[in-house]
């Protein structure tokens, strides 16, 4: 990348027509401009980090966290609407320090390996049912609509004790709150109000008649200081888990299967050796070039990155997806190696703000892949890879649909 190019503001997210392959700019940025000035959808300027070591270091540094409303940070979305970044949910949940750790400890008890193993048989049974329904309808089918979306919604709704019959409402609210450019300010504000009112009513009902679900437990649980969650925190937690618990995994199921079917030798390799399912899931997570916006960090003091001193007030965008293609961190980084191990990818972030639900996401992805291989060994794409269409305008990446046949 020439110096003239470096001095110009890149648009971010970087435009990319391919649904599965990374923008060509990623490699050039890592090699020649690892600290790049970018213009966000809001028009505000931020700093983009693309090298593995830099992204991991910033995400792991406890001094730096997500911007708060008090910070003069670059806005991710357009001028007036901020979706999930400017919502009450973003301001109520503790973003850093001991308060954040206490919140994570209360939530984290529901995402242990023991709990995930207990959930696996139910996830497997639901995956089988959804696949059977898809097969009964006959090919071609949209794997995202038939399996990728309903499965994680069912799982997170079951964990939270909310009716999965409301999943279309959750999807609409989530998309609006994850909007960068797709929805209007009025639509986003309406979604925030409706979703918050829905969750507040649900929590009130759980308080009156508790169940054996996460939200019922959080109503009475106390943290290490003996404090219970406030109603506002309970509402924000329920909304956050519902959005994160289905949006990212629903999209990742589709992208993972698309990557494996894009070169069918990968699918055949898994059919021949099912023991590769776990490492194949991790490699799909690493190879995901359509993961979305990345993680934002706000610098409150000087930090030197790749020879550049960034001052306080800098908003940094950490591109985990670009970092996961860094040749200095992964041998043959642009090749999909289904047996790659170890695989210290950054798909779930790093440090104190790494994805709290990653054990659940891994369990769902592994289970879905295992069931698909067993029930639909002849699965293949029903369109050319070049015809797959990206989700646009949201902070999460994905495919609009995944047409398959068998």
TrEMBL record:
GO terms for biological process: antibiotic biosynthetic process. The keyword Thylakoid does not apply. Keywords: Heme, Iron, Metal-binding, Monooxygenase, Oxidoreductase. One of its GO terms (molecular function) is heme binding. The keyword Nucleotide-binding does not apply. Its cofactor is heme. Gene3D superfamilies: Cytochrome P450 (1.10.630.10). Belongs to the cytochrome P450 family. This is Cytochrome P450. It comes from Planosporangium mesophilum.
